[in-house]
Specification:
There is one protein chain. This protein is of the alpha+beta class. The protein folds into two domains: 277 residues, Acetylcholine Binding Protein, Chain: A (Distorted Sandwich); 134 residues, Neurotransmitter-gated ion-channel transmembrane domain (Methane Monooxygenase Hydroxylase, Chain G, domain 1). Helix content is 34%, strand content 25%. Strands 2, 3, 4, 5, 6, 7, 9, 10, 12 and 13 form a ten-stranded mixed beta sheet that branches. Strands 1, 8, 11, 14, 15 and 16 form a six-stranded antiparallel beta sheet that branches.
Length: 462
């Protein structure tokens, strides 16, 4: 599977991305057709998924593949006796097929704006459903030959607005229409569609439909906290739902149509994980993610929309867990801070009567650390709590000010004739040195713990 990250110009990346996506969908549609022609039977796998259930991309081996006899965790509907039925008879649609099944593929994640809580992302949403109602057709009279020709020809469906698609004949006259679930992105600031949404009829006997659209969007993230910066871990969240016509008796009655995840029979092996994944070539500036974990999926209750507390509707929440790359702070900021404080400690070796020189050198180091603090703050959001990196910079800053006050103290002692100023200098230097060493030790210990927890938790589960 190609990725838009492999190409140089933006136009080439966009064209290549859309070409790759078209190849995947054509392959998916071809496999659906070949399967129906060769076997004469179709095994719909549209089992419902319970509310608040969560799934991750790494659970793909547990899903039932095409031709596999292993039971699926997604409650596959058994239709082994369908081959004995009349091939021309329309199969019985049960309540288990009343699901709107989602597939999400992430193609690109841009630079995360922690200050504004914004994430630029490019992703494709594909939904599968069975058109349980009869397809609306215009009243037309066809002879037997024309009817046979029409049935043998695969129609091309085209979107009309957000909630309907129609069959586009040679003369562009809509002869058939089908209702399309209106998908809404709940936590989006702005978005554009790449190309036009596409609708396909995958299986005629079960009326299995597929709608797919590629989005370039900016998502808003309101749940982020940066207490552990620069070792902070976050979840990029994408929330989707069907909000329109969900009232009882409406087209997409929430009591009948449940949200679910796409299955292996829906995707027909076109992707590694049938309900979604992150393309391997995706890289996130200043952050990293565990490719073994991939995306996680969960159905959460909607705080708004139709339904009360008892009959509340749900939305699909897709999450990608990311960890900040702290290499810049680990290899540049912290070693420099530690070295500056060690130099400040060495200034205490000057004689007590040289207060001006000691204070001037220490304050020069202090101003350097203030500049580093302002640089770090420019990359952080304004928070009502103290961030770990700010706490470290504050403690180093306070240590330098303590050394300046200590120099003044021993200078006054020396003027009063006290001869033990060297002991006072040694105690102050030892205290600041101990604090400096402890801060560096805890910082790098936290860095190692965050990396181990983020990237090795999957191995521990296995």
């Amino acid at each position: 599977m190609a990725s838009p990250m492999q190409f140089g110009k933006p136009s080439e990346r966009s064209g290549t991305m859309e070409h790759c996506q078209t190849m995947i969908m054509d392959r998916n549609l071809s496999q659906h057709r070949n399967r129906g022609i060769n076997s004469g039977t179709v095994t719909p796998s549209m089992g419902g998924i319970s509310r608040n259930a969560s799934y991750s991309s790494d659970t793909a081996p547990l899903l039932q593949r095409s031709g596999s006899s292993i039971p699926s965790i997604l409650e596959y509907e058994s239709t082994n006796n369908r081959s004995s039925q009349n091939p021309t008879e329309r199969p019985t649609i049960t309540e288990a097929t009343n699901t709107i099944r989602f597939q999400v593929i992430v193609w690109y994640v841009g630079k995360i704006d922690m200050v504004e809580g914004r994430v630029p992302i490019t992703f494709r949403v594909t939904i599968y459903w069975n058109a349980l109602d009869e397809v609306d057709e215009e009243e037309q009279v066809h002879d037997d030959e024309t009817s046979a020709s029409t049935l043998s020809r695969r129609p091309a469906w085209q979107m009309h607005g957000r909630q309907k698609a129609f069959v586009k004949e040679l003369k562009d006259v809509p002869s058939q229409t089908v209702e399309v679930p209106p998908v809404s992105i709940l936590n989006v600031v702005t978005f554009d569609t790449i190309g036009s949404p596409e609708v396909s009829l995958l299986q005629e006997d079960t009326r299995l439909m597929r709608w797919t659209c590629m989005y370039r969007a900016t998502l808003i993230q309101e749940h982020w906290r940066v207490d552990d910066f620069p070792h902070d871990e976050h979840e990029i969240s994408l929330r989707m739902a069907v909000l329109a016509h969900r009232q009882p008796g409406s087209q997409w009655d929430r009591r009948i149509w449940k949200l679910s995840l796409a299955t292996a029979d829906d995707s027909q092996g076109s992707v590694r994980v049938p309900y979604g994944l992150v393309v391997d070539q995706v890289s996130i500036p200043e952050f990293s993610y565990n490719k073994n974990d991939g995306l996680s999926f969960a159905f959460e209750p909607l705080d708004h929309g139709p339904g009360g507390n008892i009959d509340r509707d749900t939305c699909l929440e897709v999450k990608l867990k990311v960890l900040r790359d702290s290499s810049y702070y680990d290899r540049n900021i912290m070693p420099l801070l530690g070295l500056l404080n060690f130099v400040a400690i060495s200034i205490t070796a000057l004689e007590a009567q040289n207060f001006f020189e000691r204070a001037l050198l220490t304050l020069n180091i202090t101003f350097v650390e203030i500049g580093m603090r302002m640089t770090a703050d420019s990359k952080l959001p304004s928070a009502s709590y103290q961030i770990k990196m700010q706490r470290i910079l504050n403690e180093y800053f306070y240590g330098l000010l303590v050394l300046v006050l200590e120099s003044l103290f021993v200078y006054e002692l020396h003027n009063y004739g006290f001869r033990g100023t060297g002991v006072v200098d040694a105690i102050a230097a030892l205290a600041v040195f101990s604090h400096n060493a402890y801060t560096l030790f805890t910082y790098y210990s936290d860095a190692a713990t965050a990396q181990k927890k983020f990237f090795q938790i999957k191995q521990e589960k296995v």
